[in-house]
Amino acid sequence: MSIAIRLRAPNGQHRLDVDPSTTLKDLANIIREKAKVDKFMLKYGYPLQELDMSDSALTSSVQDLKLRGETVVVVPIDAPSTAVAQANAQGAQTSADVQPPPKPFKAKPMEPDETVVEWPQRGGFIVLRVMPDDNSCMFTSVGGALNIQDPSIRLRREVGEYILAHPETYTKAILGDEPSRYVQRMKRMDTWGGAIELSILSDIYQIQICSVDVKTSRIDRFGENMDTRCIVVYSGIHYDRIAFAMDLGYPPDFDTTQWPADDDEVLQKASELAQKLREQHYFTDTTDFIITCQVCGWVGEGTKGAATHIKETGHAEFVETKIS
């Protein structure tokens, strides 16, 4: 009976099915071919620990190493310094597909050292994965942490179904509108998600969702009794995702986005990152910011004004308006 090993490498994720008698040396050759990396170290377990690849260990079998069902992480030996140097030289974000967020929602583009907190004890970095400003940032940030492809439509639908299935909980008083109208509006791709949706998604997927507020440093926990957690950053009118990266040059598909719910060290690191963002004014004060409705041109103030306008008109596409 073969042993299944999940492999995470810079070029993606792979599944290996190897014979129990396969030696570590032979496994390394298989990994070298799959990962397209010549020199590397292997890490496994939680917290990640380095697999002994000394000459004396290379003759050990996969079965002896107790790697059945493990996720083995491939860490190129010379990649970190190279990747960091390239990122600094090019002024890149923490990954190739993370671009500076468009105005008007963010005060300024983030430089790499402003969106990264080094975590040497675990051999990597806590990074901010910036979500598009497309009114679906909350669904995208959580969906990515759950490894859901194209999450916005799916999660909006599931939230709506959950609300209608729990009428005793999600009443007009809680939602601020008739549940049927609220659900129809939430299914629209231009409607923002917030605390209600985070709470529902936590229950649906049985995961604790921690939302770190950039302005106040407050951490809101949705799903206190869950075993696993993911983390998002809230900057007033936008959500981004917190991830752990072994190397800044790795693609987001290689991120770790879930942790045990009792791992408070990762929350501490997320708070450190939020502090760096706050120093760069990476947030919008929603109590008095001026917004314009992109549907009808209405101009109002703060989230309360936006909520009233949504209720009265159904319009839910806003931009922050800068007053000179």
From TrEMBL:
Q: Does the keyword Lipid metabolism apply?
A: no
Protein name stated in the entry? Ubiquitin thioesterase OTU
* Cellular component aspect of the GO annotation: cytosol; nucleus
> Which spans does this entry mark as compositional bias, Polar residues?
85-97
Residue span of region Disordered: 85-110
Domain (OTU): give its ranges: 126-245
Extract the GO molecular function terms from the UniProt entry. Answer: cysteine-type deubiquitinase activity; zinc ion binding
Q: Which CDD domains match?
A: OTU_OTU1 (cd22745)
Enzyme class at the top of the EC tree:
hydrolase
The protein's superkingdom reads Eukaryota
> Which source organism?
Coniochaeta pulveracea
- Which keywords fit this entry according to its UniProt record? Cytoplasm, Hydrolase, Metal-binding, Protease, Thiol protease, Ubl conjugation pathway, Zinc, Zinc-finger
Main localization is cytoplasm
**Main function:** Hydrolase that can remove conjugated ubiquitin from proteins and may therefore play an important regulatory role at the level of protein turnover by preventing degradation.
Q: What PANTHER family does the annotation carry?
A: HIV-INDUCED PROTEIN-7-LIKE PROTEASE, UBIQUITIN THIOESTERASE OTU1
Q: Which reaction does it catalyse?
A: Thiol-dependent hydrolysis of ester, thioester, amide, peptide and isopeptide bonds formed by the C-terminal Gly of ubiquitin (a 76-residue protein attached to proteins as an intracellular targeting signal)
What gene name is listed for this protein? OTU1
Where is the protein found, in the record's own terms? Cytoplasm
Task: Note the InterPro entries from the entry.
Answer: OTU1_Ubl, OTU_dom, Papain-like_cys_pep_sf, Znf-C2H2_OTU1-like_C
UniProt EC number: 3.4.19.12
The Gene Ontology biological process annotation of the record reads: endoplasmic reticulum unfolded protein response; ERAD pathway; protein deubiquitination
